[in-house]
Write a structure and sequence with these properties.
Length: 639
C-alpha cells in the first residue's frame, strides 16, 4: 500500500506567476542600472580625468610636429671672410609610413629628379633600415625647377615630403678640405650614442672631420620645431605654429682665406703641403694639403663612385699631408744642425774641405759636389753634405737632437681639429728602445743631413723656420689661444749665422737663387731639401722615372730677411728636389703676401697650362675616371 507524499504540490495560480515575474524584473533592471552606472562613471572619468591624454592622442592624428634642423655656425677667417657658411637648400624626403605603392612613387622620383643607380640603391637601403615616421632623404640641394615638378605632382606621390632648409657650403671648395673638414648625416652608431631625435631628422648634419668635428658643440646650434595640420595621407593643410631654430656660434680662425685659396691653387697638380705662419704670434695663415677633396661633395652626400675615385688616386687626396704626412726633411735641417754645433762650441768660421764626400771607415758618404774649403754659412748656402757629415761625426747626433726638438721637430701640437703624426727625432736612447741596437757613427752622418731615421711633417718644418726666424719658441695656432712663446735658449749670434746662411741660399749663389722674390726691398731666406724615397742602390737616382720613386722636394723659408714676419714650409711629394719643385711655390706664396696682383698674374698663367682651376680639373678628372679613361697626359707622373 502506497504512502502519500506529505508535501502536497501547490497549485500555480495567476497571483504566484505575477509575483515571480516582478522579482525577475527587479533583478534584471538592477543589473542594467549597475552596468549603466558603471558606464556613466567610466565615461565621466574619460571625459574629465583622462581628457588631456585623449585630446593629445586625437590631435596627434591630425597634427604633425617636426624638428627643424638648426643652422650651423659659420667658420670665418681672421678678417671675417667665410670659410664655411650655409646656403638655402631644397630637399625631397620620404615618410615611410605614408608611402603607398613604393615602386610607382620611386619610379616617378627617379624620372623627375634624374636619380642614378647609386642614389636609388641608397634610397632602397635607407627605406629598409627606417621605421615609421623616420624620414628618408631622397635628394638634397635640388633645383627650383625639380622642386616645383615634385610639388605639382604631390597628390600622386604618397609619402613624399618636400622641404626647404639649409645646407653647409664651403665657398672655396677643395682649398679648405683638410683644414675645415666636412659634415655628414649621423650614422646608426652615432645615433645610438647620442639618442637624439634630431639625429634622424632629414637635413641635419654633424661634423665628421677637421674643424667641423672639433667645434661640433659650438657650431651645431639649437633645433626649432614646426606644428602643421595634416590630412590622413600626410598632406599639409596649414601651419599651426613654428619655433625658430637658434643658429650655432661663429668660429674665428687665424687663417687668411685669400692666402689659403691662393696657396691651394698654386700647388697645381702636385701632391704635397704648404704651411704659412705669422712670426709675430704663431698664427697659422695658410694650412694646405693637396690634392684634396671638395667638402661640398661630402656635405651633399658623396656618391659611391666619387668616393671610389678619391680613394683610387695615388696622390692620396683623402690624406692630410700637412700633419699626417711624414718625410725625411733632408737638407732643410742643416741650419738647425749649425745652431746645435755652435751651441756646443763649434766656431762658425772654422773651415772644412769638401772633396766630394766624407770618409767614415771603409764607407764614403757622398756630397752633392766638390765645394772646396768652406765655413758654416757657406756650407748652408751650398748645402754641403760633407761639411755637415764632419760636424755630425765630430759631435754625435745626441748633441744635435735636443736642438731639433727645441725648434719644434718631433712635437705633437695642441692644434684644433688636426690629427697628427709627429715623426721622429732619433738619438741613441731612441734606437736602443726601438731596435735594441747601439747608435753608430753612420747613423749620425745620415741624421745630420735629415735622412736615416729622421722624419717630420710639414707643420713641424714651418714651425722650425718660424722659430729660427723669430728666435722665440712660437707655438702654432688656428684659433686665438694664448701661448707664452718664450725666447729660445740660443745665443742670438748663433741664430744670426743660420739666418745668414739661409739668406745666401736664395739671395747669394745658393741652391734656390732662381726663387728670389721679384719684389723691391723684400728678400726671402730659405733652405732647400731633397729627401730620398729609396736608396741609390735600388737602381734609380730619384731624379726621374716612375713618379712614386722620385725624391721629395722640400723648402723652408722666412721673409723679410732683415725683420722676419712670415715663415713657411713647402713639401712636394716626388718633386725631385727642393730647388726644382718646392722653392718656386714658396716664392709665389711670399709674392702674394706683398704683391697680390703680381702673384695672381703668375698663377693664372700656370693654371692655363694645368688645365684650369682646382674645381675645373677635379670635375674633368672625375668624369674621365668614371668613363674609364684617364685625363692625365702622363699616367704616373706628378699632376
Amino acid at each position: 500500500m502506497r504512502r502519500k507524499n506529505p508535501r502536497q504540490t501547490m497549485p500555480i495560480t495567476e497571483a504566484w506567476r505575477g509575483m515571480t515575474f516582478t522579482r525577475r524584473t527587479l533583478l534584471v533592471g538592477g543589473g542594467q542600472m549597475a552596468v549603466g552606472a558603471a558606464l556613466a562613471t567610466r565615461m565621466a572619468y574619460i571625459s574629465v580625468v583622462d581628457n588631456d591624454r585623449y585630446v593629445l592622442e586625437s590631435e596627434s592624428n591630425r597634427v604633425n610636429l617636426t624638428l627643424v634642423p638648426p643652422r650651423r655656425g659659420w667658420i670665418v677667417d681672421r678678417h671675417g671672410k667665410a670659410l664655411a657658411n650655409n646656403r638655402v637648400s631644397l630637399r625631397i624626403d620620404i615618410i615611410p609610413d605614408r608611402l603607398h605603392n613604393k615602386d610607382l612613387v620611386l619610379g616617378q622620383l627617379r624620372t623627375l629628379l634624374r636619380l642614378d643607380g647609386d642614389a636609388m640603391d641608397r634610397i632602397e637601403r635607407d627605406l629598409k633600415a627606417a621605421s615609421g615616421f623616420q624620414p628618408v632623404a631622397v635628394a638634397e640641394d635640388v633645383t627650383e625647377q625639380d622642386y616645383s615638378a615634385v610639388l605639382v605632382r604631390l597628390p600622386d606621390l604618397s609619402g613624399i615630403a618636400p622641404a626647404r632648409g639649409f645646407a653647409r657650403n664651403y665657398p672655396t671648395g677643395a682649398a679648405v678640405g683638410h683644414l675645415i673638414g666636412y659634415v655628414g648625416a649621423p650614422n646608426a652608431e652615432e645615433y645610438e650614442k647620442a639618442k637624439n631625435p634630431l639625429y634622424i631628422t632629414p637635413g641635419f648634419k654633424i661634423g665628421k672631420d677637421g674643424l667641423e668635428k672639433y667645434f661640433e658643440d659650438v657650431l651645431k646650434g639649437k633645433p626649432g620645431a614646426r606644428r602643421v595640420e595634416v590630412t590622413a595621407r600626410g598632406k599639409v593643410v596649414r601651419d599651426l605654429s613654428t619655433q625658430p631654430d637658434v643658429q650655432g656660434k661663429t668660429v674665428h680662425l687665424t687663417i687668411d682665406a685669400d692666402l689659403q685659396e691662393y696657396v691651394a691653387r698654386r700647388m697645381g697638380r702636385e701632391s704635397g703641403a704648404a704651411i704659412v705662419i705669422d712670426c709675430l704670434n704663431g698664427d697659422i695663415l695658410s694650412f694646405v694639403s693637396m690634392p684634396s677633396f671638395d667638402p661640398n661633395s661630402f656635405s651633399d652626400g658623396i656618391s659611391n663612385s666619387e668616393y671610389a675615385w678619391l680613394r683610387a688616386d695615388d696622390h692620396q687626396p683623402l690624406i692630410n699631408k700637412a700633419t699626417r704626412g711624414l718625410y725625411p726633411p733632408g737638407s732643410t735641417l742643416k741650419p738647425m744642425a749649425a745652431i746645435a754645433a755652435m751651441e756646443h762650441g763649434v766656431d762658425p768660421g772654422e773651415k772644412h774641405t769638401c772633396i766630394g764626400g766624407y770618409r767614415l771607415g771603409s764607407r764614403f758618404f757622398r756630397c752633392l759636389g766638390r765645394h772646396g774649403t768652406i765655413d758654416m754659412p757657406t756650407a748652408i748656402e751650398k748645402s754641403c753634405n760633407s761639411y755637415f757629415y764632419w760636424l755630425g761625426h765630430r759631435l754625435g747626433y745626441d748633441a744635435i737632437a735636443p736642438t731639433a726638438r727645441l725648434l719644434g721637430l718631433g712635437e705633437e701640437y695642441q692644434l684644433a681639429g688636426s690629427a697628427q703624426r709627429y715623426g721622429t727625432v732619433p738619438d741613441s736612447e731612441w734606437k736602443m728602445r726601438k731596435y735594441h741596437r747601439e747608435w753608430s757613427a753612420s747613423d749620425s752622418l745620415n741624421a745630420v743631413i735629415g735622412q736615416g731615421y729622421v722624419l717630420a711633417n710639414p707643420l713641424q718644418l714651418a714651425v722650425m723656420a718660424a722659430r729660427i726666424a723669430s728666435g722665440r719658441a712660437l707655438y702654432p695656432r688656428l684659433i686665438n689661444r694664448q701661448f707664452e712663446n718664450k725666447p729660445l735658449p740660443f745665443a742670438e749670434e748663433h741664430l744670426a749665422v743660420a739666418r745668414e746662411g739661409m739668406n745666401r741660399v736664395v739671395n747669394g749663389p745658393g741652391t734656390a737663387v732662381r726663387s728670389r722674390l721679384p719684389l723691391d726691398g723684400i728678400a726671402m731666406a730659405g733652405k732647400t731639401g731633397t729627401a730620398q724615397v729609396r736608396g741609390l742602390a735600388s737602381g734609380g737616382n730619384g731624379k726621374g722615372g716612375t713618379w712614386k720613386y722620385r725624391d721629395h722636394g722640400l723648402f723652408v723659408c722666412f721673409a723679410p730677411v732683415d725683420n722676419p714676419r712670415y715663415a713657411a714650409s713647402v713639401v712636394i711629394e716626388h718633386g725631385m728636389g727642393g730647388s726644382r719643385a718646392a722653392a718656386p711655390v714658396a716664392k709665389d706664396i711670399f709674392t702674394f703676401l706683398y704683391d697680390r696682383e703680381k702673384a695672381m698674374a703668375a698663377l693664372e698663367g700656370f693654371e692655363a697650362g694645368w688645365g684650369g682651376t682646382i674645381t675645373e680639373r677635379m670635375n674633368r678628372d672625375y668624369a674621365a675616371w668614371k668613363a674609364g679613361a684617364s685625363s692625365d697626359p702622363e699616367p704616373g707622373a706628378p699632376r
